[in-house]
Design brief:
This is Smoothened homolog. This protein is 54% helix and 7% strand. By secondary structure, the protein is mainly alpha-helical. The strands form five sheets. Strands 1-7-6 form a three-stranded antiparallel sheet, with no helix packed on it.
């Protein structure tokens, strides 16, 4: 969502910059171009015959020109110096792409306001043109370069030519348009805009909205930590009687969500949120882990993602254990004998494999709104594959086992009304209600996740 919003903004000023190029293409089809095809100086191929005119403007893109005469023969979209000046103004939109603006100024001035002397105009060099292709690729992506700025034109751009414009010191203080900020870190560059990266704070939300969400996370996280801590403490106090399956699985579920909540609350340490979700250059953390950055983002991701996935996997184990236990009611056989080791193997290893895969593919992104690093903030297909799909499988499996368990209990109560004592019947009803509440909470969790 942020990427697409950023693309809209970049395209906005990109199209402004290229408006002149669009006009160029239209006019180029009707204007005679014989002067661009011949009349080169036979003794100096870096010059072309042209009618020299006294400069009407003493500067180009804010930099003072060191010569007095020019010609518009190289710019096919301009019939006079006024037109050329107007087209240059349109190109100033590229100030918002700093790396591009730094290299394109000499090229534009050498084409729109070249030095003209003794009936010959200086041609821009091929190197001056070629150096703009990488930093200014947004021009190619949005509208394409006009014909007279195509580096392949051997009549316009000559290799090795010296040019008076090269000696001019241009103002290279271009800046990035919000929500982009300047950065020298190539890994932080926004696609197509070299020298700019997405600011750390999510621009789609105001400071007040950030603060509101952070307060909610702090409150909800604190409540979760307190409740899970007391649940764990209750188990530990009476460990001898509590460490039996399937009840013991509740201990592991609470333990997972306790640690996961610590990951959520880590952002509330002094200065921690910026350290977690922001790079040192003030841009948003994307595609972590990356070289030159600390591991706080990856650590928080692991605490939140791994233990959340482990917790929901244990939920399936709990539903399965209840299902097997209910079916074994009335028999002396331990329904879970020999199966508990598989519970641990599945519940701890599957989330670990998923976490390692995400980190290996560098799909961990920071988000200032949530204050954590997680998978799929930038690439939603990874969020679907590593979060939504596993949670959907867990939900379907868990609810299937819970449904079977409830069906077994209901069947026992209906088929044995005379055998069951009132106490046993009441206990079965209470268990059915608890299972229903548990299933409802599971659905709520998945709904929030999606």
């Amino acid at each position: 969502m942020l990427r697409s919003a950023g693309r809209v903004l970049i395209c906005g000023f990109g199209l402004l910059c290229l408006l002149g190029a669009t006009v160029v293409t239209a006019q180029n089809t009707t204007r005679a171009t014989a002067t661009t095809l011949n009349y080169r100086d036979s003794q100096n191929p870096c010059k072309k015959r042209a009618k020299c005119e006294l400069l009407e403007y003493s500067s180009c893109l804010g930099s003072t020109l060191t010569y007095q005469f020019t010609s518009t023969v190289l710019a096919n979209d301009s019939t006079n110096q006024g037109d050329a000046h107007g087209k240059l103004v349109l190109w100033t939109g590229l100030k918002n792409v700093p790396r591009c603006w730094e290299v394109i100024q000499p090229l534009l001035c050498s084409v729109y306001m070249p030095k003209c002397e003794n009936g010959y105009v200086e041609l821009p060099s091929y190197e001056m043109c070629a150096v703009t292709r990488g930093p200014c690729k947004i021009v190619e992506e949005e509208q394409g370069w006009p014909a007279f700025l195509q580096c392949q034109d051997n009549n316009q751009f000559i290799r090795g030519c010296e040019n008076e414009v090269k000696k001019i010191k241009f103002n290279v203080t271009g800046g990035c348009e919000r929500p982009l900020v300047e950065t020298d870190n190539e890994k932080s560059f926004y696609e197509g805009v070299e020298g700019c990266g997405i600011q750390c704070q999510n621009p789609l939300f105001t400071d007040a909205e950030h603060e509101r969400i952070h307060k909610f996370i702090a409150g909800f996280g604190a409540v979760t930590v307190v409740f899970t801590f007391f649940t764990l403490a209750t188990f530990l106090v009476d460990w001898k009687n509590s460490s039996r399956y399937p009840a013991l699985i509740l201990f592991y579920i609470n333990g997972c969500f306790f640690v996961g909540s610590i990951g959520w609350l880590a952002q509330f340490s002094e200065g921690a949120r910026d350290d977690i979700v922001c790079r040192s250059d003030g841009t948003m953390r994307i595609a972590e882990p990356s070289d030159g950055q600390n591991l706080s983002c990856v650590v928080v991701f692991f605490l939140v993602y791994y233990f959340m996935m482990a917790g929901v996997t244990w939920f399936v184990m709990l539903a399965f254990a209840w299902h097997k236990s209910f079916r074994a009611l009335g028999s002396c056989k331990d329904a879970l004998s020999g199966k508990t080791s598989y519970f641990h193997l599945i519940s701890w290893s599957v989330p670990l494999v998923l976490s390692v895969m995400i980190i290996a593919m560098r799909q961990v992104d920071g988000d200032s709104l949530s204050g954590i690093c997680f998978v799929g903030y930038q690439n939603h297909e990874y969020r679907a594959g590593f979060l939504l799909a596993p949670v959907a499988v867990v939900l379907a499996s868990g609810l299937w086992f819970l449904g079977n368990g409830m069906f077994t209990l209901v069947k026992i109560q209906i088929d044995n009304p005379d055998i069951l004592s009132s106490r046993a019947s009441t206990k079965i009803k209470e268990t059915i209600v608890r299972l229903g509440i548990f299933a409802f909470l599971a659905l709520g969790f998945v709904f929030i996740t999606f």
